Amino acid sequence: MSASTPAGRRQIHLAAHFPGVNSTTVWRDPGSRSQIDFSSFQHLARTAERGRFDFFFLAEGLRLRERKGRIHDLDVVGRPESLTVLNALAAVTEHLGLAATVNATFNEPYELARRFATLDHLSGGRAAWNIVTSSDAFTGENFRRGGYLDRADRYTRAAEFVEVARALWDSWPSGGTPRTVRHSGPQFDITARATLPHSPQVHPVLIQAGDSDEGREFAARTADIVFSRHGTPEAGRTFHADVKGRLARYGRTPDQLKILPAATVVLGDSEADAQERAAHIRRQQVSPQTAIATLENVWGRDLTGYDPDGPLPDVEPVPDGELAQGWAHMADRFGIAARWRSLAEEKHLSIRELAVELTARQSFIGTPASVAAAMDEHVQTDAADGFILVPHLTPGGLDEFVDRVVPLLQERGVLRTEYQGRTLRDHLGLPAPRQEESA
Ligand SMILES: Cc1cc2nc3c(=O)[nH]c(=O)nc-3n(C[C@H](O)[C@H](O)[C@H](O)COP(=O)(O)O)c2cc1C
């Protein structure tokens, strides 16, 4: 499928992020249902397919967020393993891409290449892998290796990981016999034969989600999609230009990499109605425990004695405080605390109101018509190639979007009314993977 309509308007790529344990999900809302029950995954996936989305997306957290022996309130619901869920979804969807976030720091390439090839076979070519590296020191404690790798080492390992996985995917042509893959590098020393012939896409679609210079370079060299945090038009355009500008170095063209920022949508019957709903959702997203935890990440000390609806703590941060695992190396705690204090004073904010202010991530607020127009504008002006929509409710959080905004995008000619191809690469308009590198 081409990237543009005959009239020259670029197509919007949409993905559905299953709302899991993050600061967006309001799982105590009466409209929320289970985040584990298969019916929830099925509901969101089928909604996305009804809206002709490109793919369904699962994030990954390999450890519960524990603090002072307690599990953070958003995590008590738990989270199943992604590839298992996606294999089950392959059976109840027909066209939708199925993307799993899986860590390259704590897994092994032989096993993971095999599992993604299996998903690609079972789904008829709809698998995608979001390659993450994990910045959490405490996640490493769950694994034999222990600890965690420095950023540079994480991307070194990820690059070699993907190289080995690619060699395995390429090594057994359909109708042929498997070649032996021999790889000897600093991270992996492997002599292996793949257990499966070429899957429909040969390589699953590769997604990257890190934001550092190393992460962007890795994306330019390796990824088909970048999952970005840069959702505003200005930040989106800067990011878009930066990452797409790196592609030529690897012999790639700008349309071979799709940049999809995370985005949230709040709809209303009028602009005022939408703003009111947005404010209500933001407050629901930040529980008292989340508000205190947000500050403890910076203060590095126990703040549970403070009233979430009261003023900011009068004590100073602890320089090397390590209350929140994974934030152990935060630089400039004092500077951040000072900035947060002056913001709270200026706007008369309580701890919870400040946390709401800091974590609010609503990208599109408005009527269905104004949201459709704004999304279209983003894509036509190179702020994004589409969006990974992160609803705040499980599993019905995209129902309204699909019912009310999707038809308007289709009327504008920027969203397909029917799927044209079979595979996720077809939906994304991506070329076949380059196999010569690892063959
Ligand atoms: C939009 C976005 C989504 C991410 N999602 C996940 C995730 O689901 N699981 C995970 O372990 N890491 C996730 N990460 C973390 C990255 O994989 C990476 O470990 C982290 O951003 C540090 O790398 P960087 O310094 O290049 O940004 C995400 C990062 C970004 C920017």
Automatic annotation (TrEMBL):
Protein known as: LLM class flavin-dependent oxidoreductase
Binding of FMN, residues: 101, 155, 212
Gene3D superfamilies named in the record: Luciferase-like domain
Lineage: Bacteria, Bacillati, Actinomycetota, Actinomycetes, Kitasatosporales
Keyword Phosphoprotein among UniProt keywords: no
Keyword terms: Flavoprotein, FMN, Monooxygenase, Oxidoreductase
GO molecular function: monooxygenase activity; oxidoreductase activity, acting on paired donors, with incorporation or reduction of molecular oxygen
One family name in Pfam for this protein: Bac_luciferase
Residue ranges annotated for the Luciferase-like domain, each copy included: 32-381
